[in-house]
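Priority: medium. Attachment 1 of 2:
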């Protein structure tokens, strides 16, 4: 301000804090919420009475603040409470062992609620034996001014008091204040609030705003629900949601999200910011965890009670959401009218029933989310696989659904399918090669040859997309692969049958300075011997004969690089090393086992990692369901 020359208009604080300063009902809720966040167990409020001359004050026995904490929190315009103090409120030392509370505060604006009752107001806070009293008033060149008016170093306990300096400007009565507090702060019986010495109880909630329901739980007992309607929706879901009590003690935190992460009500709806539901079920004492943070998820009593209570809550809330649900259905139908018009009459009926039931039975799902799912359903009705995808999603555990979400965040369906199809094709090829190369009765021409046609990538990355021919006459090979018209002899350098196997060749073109094709730059000859044949000097020499013939025909030049792979069941130990002819021709013997191992390494060891994948087990990956029970789809959507 004085350092930067920034000035604040006198209206700034009113605009910044809004209804926290202008609305008494909002102000008192914010001040009580601050006491909750400080882990107070008792809050005593003195309500202003102009005739009696009493001023407003609120005193709690929460953790209190040191002078340094007060300065840091009170002086910041938008104090980031979540970053500074976290989402939970820890108890003071004398309440050690009590479970943390879910904090209500977010940005610290609630502290300005004192201005609703007077300007200036005072803040007295004490802890660790030290007490400091501040005066807080609106500023002239800044939103507000603080000054210390009193300190003492013999304070006992801990807590905070906010007190007004006048009794003017508040029309609300003490009874009305108790009503407002009662509709929001009765979930935890250990948090006691009094106004003018009268404790706030359920009696302070008008009967028109309070509903009680008994929910029988077969074989275990009866859960008692007290549903409190705040009459109007608050800004947030703070002080609202489902609260579970067992023997007058709160279990976990009040929330619309259940202990099993099931969202009972969408927090963005007005109902979520309006209702507070307190469930008393003393018979669940056997299911409470030792730290009272939740219930044992495997407890039969808890499972049965949770289901019964959640159903009762949804039935109750449905009476308040009928109009909104009708609007949601109409909005979804209008938005997706074009897509739905393409469906068959039966498909349209199924789609319409799905929309109606999801909107009615899944109040925790927003209209936008239902529309997204309904759009997917319409597309599934038009797809060839129909509801097979829904079946597969329904069978996935929660963790796999999260993994699928991450995959779809990183990949498109098309790119993922391209990659996975290639991986699947190659792994299945390796599996088939490994199986057939162990079969001594195998017909190498009918079975081995097609496999090696698709295995060029094993020899090296340069052969991923090479042109090749198979089972063609020598004339056809010369014409297609080498671009010449000469006629060869009986030693045909193609996938040609020879007495002990077959031979194939693969080439890469050479180019001249004008970038025109000019012969062969690289040639690979793969001679596949019959299963059971051992590769020795004779077999390696036969490959060299093919090369000499090609040279004689002018199909290879001195600049052509040639590698001959001679594959068989075994390799003579004396022929393990490569045989070279000049510096351009290499003949290499390789066993089938080595070939398979090399293929596995080229696939990064995925064969062993994915051995349990359905396509490796021979399962039908394309089997899809034409129809799917509607309730199954609704269950899947609700459990998303």
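Attachment 2 of 2:
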């Amino acid at each position: 301000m004085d350092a930067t020359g920034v000035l604040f208009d006198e209206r700034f604080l009113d605009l910044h804090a809004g209804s926290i300063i202008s609305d008494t009902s909002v102000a008192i809720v914010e001040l009580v919420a601050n006491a909750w966040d400080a882990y107070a167990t008792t809050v005593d409020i003195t309500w202003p009475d102009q005739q009696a001359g009493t001023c407003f004050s609120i005193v709690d026995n929460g953790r209190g603040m040191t002078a340094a904490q007060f300065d840091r929190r009170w002086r910041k315009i938008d104090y980031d409470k979540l970053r500074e103090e976290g989402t939970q409120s820890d108890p003071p030392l004398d309440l050690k062992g009590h479970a943390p509370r879910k904090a209500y505060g977010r940005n610290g604006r609630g502290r300005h609620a004192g201005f609703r009752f007077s300007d200036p107001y005072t803040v007295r806070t004490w802890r660790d034996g030290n007490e400091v009293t501040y005066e807080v008033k609106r500023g002239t060149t800044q939103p507000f001014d603080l000054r210390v008016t009193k300190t003492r170093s013999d304070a006992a306990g801990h807590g905070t008091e906010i007190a007004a300096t006048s009794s003017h400007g508040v029309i609300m009565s003490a009874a009305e204040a108790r009503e407002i507090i009662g509709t929001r702060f009765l979930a935890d019986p250990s948090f006691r609030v009094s106004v003018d010495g009268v404790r706030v109880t359920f009696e302070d909630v008008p009967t028109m705003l309070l509903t009680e329901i008994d929910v029988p739980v077969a074989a275990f007992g009866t859960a008692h629900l007290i549903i409190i309607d705040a009459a109007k929706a608050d800004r947030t879901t703070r002080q609202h949601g489902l609260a579970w009590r067992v023997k007058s003690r709160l279990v976990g935190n009040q929330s619309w999200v259940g202990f099993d992460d099931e969202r009972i009500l969408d927090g963005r709806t007005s109902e979520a910011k309006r209702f507070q539901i307190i469930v008393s079920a003393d018979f669940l004492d056997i299911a409470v965890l030792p730290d009272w943070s939740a219930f044992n998820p495997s407890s039969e009593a808890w499972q049965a009670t949770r289901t019964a209570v959640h159903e009762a809550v949804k039935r109750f809330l449905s009476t308040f959401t009928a109009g909104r649900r009708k609007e949601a259905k109409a909005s979804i139908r209008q938005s997706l009218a074009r897509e739905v018009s393409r469906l068959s009459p039966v498909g349209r009926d199924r789609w319409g029933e799905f929309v109606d039931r999801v909107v009615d039975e899944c109040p925790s799902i927003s209209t936008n989310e239902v529309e997204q799912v309904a759009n997917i359903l319409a597309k599934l009705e038009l797809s060839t696989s129909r509801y097979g995808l829904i079946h597969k999603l329904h069978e996935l555990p929660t963790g796999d659904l999260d993994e699928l979400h991450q995959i779809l965040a990183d990949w498109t369906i098309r790119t993922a399918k391209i990659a996975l199809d290639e991986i699947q094709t190659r792994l299945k090829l390796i599996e088939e090669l490994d199986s057939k190369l162990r079969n001594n009765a195998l017909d190498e021409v009918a079975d081995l040859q097609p496999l090696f046609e698709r295995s060029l990538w094993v020899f090296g990355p340069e052969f991923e997309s090479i042109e090749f021919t198979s089972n063609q006459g020598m004339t056809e090979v010369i014409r297609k692969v080498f671009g010449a018209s000469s006629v060869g002899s009986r030693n045909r350098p193609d996938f040609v049958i020879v007495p002990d196997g077959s031979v194939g060749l693969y080439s890469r073109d050479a180019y001249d300075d004008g970038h025109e094709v000019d012969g062969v730059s690289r040639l690979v000859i793969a001679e596949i011997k019959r299963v059971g044949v051992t590769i020795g000097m004779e077999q390696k020499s036969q490959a060299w004969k093919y090369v000499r013939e090609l040279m004689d025909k002018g199909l290879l030049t001195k600049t052509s690089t040639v590698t001959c792979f001679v594959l068989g069941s075994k390799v003579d130990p004396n022929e393990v090393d490569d045989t070279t002819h000049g510096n351009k021709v290499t003949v290499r013997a390789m066993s089938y086992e080595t070939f398979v191992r090399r293929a596995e390494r080229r696939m990064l060891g995925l064969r062993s990692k994915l051995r349990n994948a359905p396509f490796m087990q021979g399962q039908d990956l394309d089997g899809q369901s034409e129809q799917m029970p509607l309730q199954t789809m609704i269950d899947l959507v609700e459990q998303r």
